[in-house]
Each structure stands twice: as C-alpha cells, then as structure tokens.
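Bench log. Compound arrived from synthesis this morning; before running ITC I wanted a structural hypothesis for how uridine-5'-diphosphate sits in the protein. Inputs:
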Amino acid sequence: MERDMVASKPHAVLVASPGMGHIIPMVELGKRLLTHHSFHVTIFVVTTDSATTTSQILRQTSNLSSLNIVHVPPIDVSNKLPSNPPLAVRIKLTMLESLPFLRSSVTSNNKFPPPSALIVDIFGLQALPMARDLGMLTYVYFATSAWFSAVTVYFSDTDKKIMETHAESREPLSIPGCTPVRFGDTLEPFLSPGEAMYESYLGSAKQIVAADGILMNTWQDLEPAATKALRENGVLGRFTKGEVYAVGPLVRSAEKKPDGGKKVGVLQWLDEQPAESVIYVSFGSGGTMSANQMMEVALGLELSQQRFVWVVRPPCEDDSSGAFFDVASGVDAAMSYLPEGFVKRTEEMGVVVPMWAPQAEILQHPATGGFVTHCGWNSVLESVRNGVPMVAWPLYAEQKMNAFMVSEELGVAVRVAEEGGGVVGRKQVAEVVRRVMVDEEGVGMRKKVKELKLSGEKALCMFGSSHHSLCEMRKECEVHVQ
Ligand code: UDP
C-alpha cells in the first residue's frame, strides 16, 4: 500500500543555477512541493569554483534533511570564456556543461519513480530539450516578480521595431495589462536591439514561453494586474504555451534550533536591542560596491544615529565577480575597507558582518525595523514576509523594477536617489535610514508592509491562491504520470 503511494506521487526534478540568489528560491520551491503537495523532489545544485562556499551556506541555511539534494560536481569554465565575461554568460555556460551529469543522474535514478517534471530557472533553459526527450513536462521558475515575468513574455513575441523605438526614444515600455516600465528600469542591454545580449535574451524568452508551464515567486494579490495579464489569453497569456502559476511568496524562514539554541554573534546582539530599532543593510548574495561608496555608507550609518547590522564585502566596480565569492578569504579584505576607527566608534550602535549574514534570521528578528536592500527579489519577499519596511537601493538586473514597485506602487520603501558621480553621499544615506526608522513616513510604511505580510501568508494557506496554483500544477503532473 505504502509502496503504491510512493510510486503514485509525481517526481519533480529541480535544477538550481549557480549563485545563492538562484539556489535559495529553488530550494524553497522544492521544500514546498515536498511538504505541501506530496511530490518526490530531487534538486540538482549547480555550482562553480566556490562550490565549498555554496555547500557550507546551504548546510547552514536550510533544513535539508528531507530533501534529495544532488550537488553537481563543480565545473570550472574559466578557460572556455573570454576574460571578464558577463555574469549571465558564465552562469549559462556552467549550466550547459553540467547537462551530461544531469542527464545520466536523471536516467539512472532508482530512488523515486521516473521524474514527470523538470523545473529550471532562467539560466537552466538548456536542460529543457533533455526533459522533453525523456518525456517530462517542462516548467520555468521565475524567482522574480510577475511584472518582470510579463516583460520577458511580452518581449518573446514583440516586433523588433517596437523594441528599437523603445530603446531610441527611451520611452517607457508598454506591456499590455501591466504598469509601463521606465526605460532606465528595464534590462537595457538585454532589451535593446543591437546590444550584445539582445539576441541571447530573445532566445531565452522564446524558450520560456514554449515551456509547459511558468511558475513565479509572487502572489496574485501582490501583483493582480500582471498576474491577470499573464494568465489571460487575450492579454499576455496568448504568448505562453502552458499555464502561468503565481506560487509565492516562497522564502526561507529562520531555522528552529532543536535545543532552543543559544544564539551567538549578530543574533545574540539583536536579542539585546529594543523592538524594531535596528536597520539591516545588505546588498544580496553577491552585491558589492565601490570603496568610495562603502565609505559613504559607513559614515551615513554613523550620522543616522540608528542601530544597524551591515553586511560588508570587498569592493568591486562591476557585478561580475560578486556572485562567486569565497566567504573565508573575503573576511579580512572586507573589513579593511571600513573607515579608520569605524568599528570601535560604532560598537555600541551596530554590528558589521563580513561577507555573509544569516539574513532570514535577522529579518525575522523582532529587533529589526528596516532593511536597506539592493532589491533582489528574494530580499524584497523576505522583507515583506517579515513585515519590514525598506530603503530601496537597486544595483543591477531587474532590481530597479523591484525598487519602483516597492517604493512607488506598494508604498513600503523609500528609494535612494542617484547622485552625481555615481556615489550616494553619507547625508542621503543618513536621511533615508531616518525616514524609514524614525519619521512619520516610516510608520505608514510599516503599517502597509504588515498588511502585505498577511496577504502573503493568506496566499500560501490551504485555500490561498498560491497553494491553489501548485495544486493545479500537481494535477498536470499527475495526469502526465498516468
Ligand atoms: N543572503 C543571506 N545572507 C547574506 C546575503 C544574502 O542569507 O549575507 C540570502 C538572502 O536571504 C536571499 C539571497 O541570499 O535569500 C539573495 O537573493 P536576492 O534575490 O535578494 O539577491 P541576489 O543575491 O540574487 O542579488
């Protein structure tokens, strides 16, 4: 009987691409499929040269005991790439090179029934033909907003002339059923014809819409217009072969220590601070800033006179190296860029954490009252899930769209304004921090973000929209198994 049950469950294979910002949401989706939707789940984690760091962080940050996680042997693709390739190119090549391992593992699996579905993110599209070959359903998981998903879906079938006009005029991109996207907030190098990445992104967009389904880490009530546009045939749904499912907000929550757990380091320090009195400052899993900018952030935090926790990394002038850092070797380097005497002067009011912090635990902590974030989508969702208002400080990729959404549409963040010379000065840093932590404006944002928190919880509960979406997706997989 039990054997039959095991056999009748659909088996989903998930492939997580390199970078913690890609791995974490895939693992969370895997957990959800396993614990709430009775799937067998296998997650392949693809890493690069910093595989040790990834495994260490994964071990520290996820309760993985019940998940079947397979680490793809690390692949170093550096000798096949030009020097300083764009990050996306490096990730895609790593994914391509991992396909033979993936295929042989999927076909030789004898732990679970043959997999009925493959779920990849935007960097794992090269695995889709393999899945079709093996008779599996194909799903693409956008670990981003419905709004950004809508840009990609729209782009897949849009006349090149429209994109050219958009790039030339710098007018907002009008996407049917959605808020127009400001030119500077779109992925300029990807969406502008003539730019190196244009054709490659177009190819990806076409592969995405041809999948059997699209999953998005968002929820209907957060983005009603974009979700509706993507699902409706008359609007954007006509571009997609399969159904579009909003399944979020899927974010990591703090691990419960079996013994109640004695806290150490930053979490112990947070225990000693008053409720909602600390601003957490972090720019994602790979985000780095220039040495000058680090200096201004430090002095701005000091000027704000607010308690803080700040995750620091050694400076980097572009986005190409950040996603693949090595935690151990970066610690001393990161600290050496702080202003002279900063740690000593601020020891009563803040904690500097080099390289990597337990973000889920920090945002969930009652002492945390604000988050200066680069607006990576996972960070945005983690902030919302914990009812924490934000200072939106986007760096690259789709982060400017996310920043627009949280500040101008949802009203749960203050956005940092660009300043001449590309460095945000200490005065502005202090001002935005105080607007969220001290001013009346912050009180309003806090109230709104707590409402969104409840809305996200509702989406995931038994009768919620996101739970329902994954039930529908499971039905497709069940039918496919039979
Ligand atoms: N993260 C963390 N500690 C850190 C930095 C990041 O746990 O010091 C986690 C964070 O909680 C989030 C992910 O890494 O889940 C970063 O994803 P996000 O989409 O915010 O940004 P990305 O790294 O993709 O730019």
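What the model suggests: The first strand starts at residue 11 and ends at 16. Residues 1-5, 319-323 have pLDDT under 50 and may be disordered.
ITC booked for Thursday regardless.
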